[in-house]
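haha ok so turns out i had the wrong file open the whole time. this is the CORRECT one, sorry everyone. sequence first:
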Amino acid sequence: MSDTQPSDLNVRRTERLVYVEERLFWTGRVNGADLMVRFGISKGQASADLARYRGMQSAPVLYDPKERAFVAPEGMKAVLTRPDMDGLMNLMRSDPMTADDVMDLGFLTPVSRRVDLAIARSVVRAIIGRRSLAVTYYSLSSGRRDKVLSPHALATDGMRFHARAYDHDRQRFADFVLGRMAGATDAGPSHADPDGDTAWFEIEHLALVPNPAFPDGKRRAVEMDYGMKGGKLVYPVRHAMLLYADARLLLHSSFSEMPPVNRPIVPEDQAAYDALVAAATGAG
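then structure:
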């Protein structure tokens, strides 16, 4: 008797149906061989999955003998997913495409930042279990320090992973880079209330506009690139992560001498934004 439970089968079937949808949406075609190669299933199972997905679509998904595949209906709408470019990249990276479907992709990956998985696991478990940790932490400002931290969240700026935690030594909430921790042992229950971390829960809605140094035609290009509405983009960011957003987007007035091509978007109200950054810097 198989150890596979019905719930496991449902999850696996859903994964295959999502794959069918993504293949149809992006490449316009899918066949049983795609499923068989991707998931190692039988021809009969692949046929059943294709039939099930075809039944979900309001528009007919028809078989094209010339393509030897089912083809996407005109104006196909996804029913299981919300397609986005990240989904396309994941599909292209993970899918063993046939020779007819392969396309070149280029990825600029971030410079690798070290994370000790044992420490990361300890942080995750401390967050879930409301525990404190004794850690040895290496800071650029103060060097090596032994600390007791009460983490309540994880964060990433796309380059590094941080623990958002209460620092019992300095009696405040702050960010701690996981890659700068050397050792993390249980230090008992956490008595720090995460609700006191107002900077973490406070969301700033930054109003961003094309750099006014651009002529009109180029400003329109920026509006299209960032999906602006009415010439403006509202970008929500946690107050605690404002400095990371600033480092990535170069929004502070100290970057104003940079060529606009390197700083295509700017705050609608530069003075108000600079004041926010000053407050975040003082809190950090």
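The chain has a mean pLDDT of 90.
again sry for the mixup
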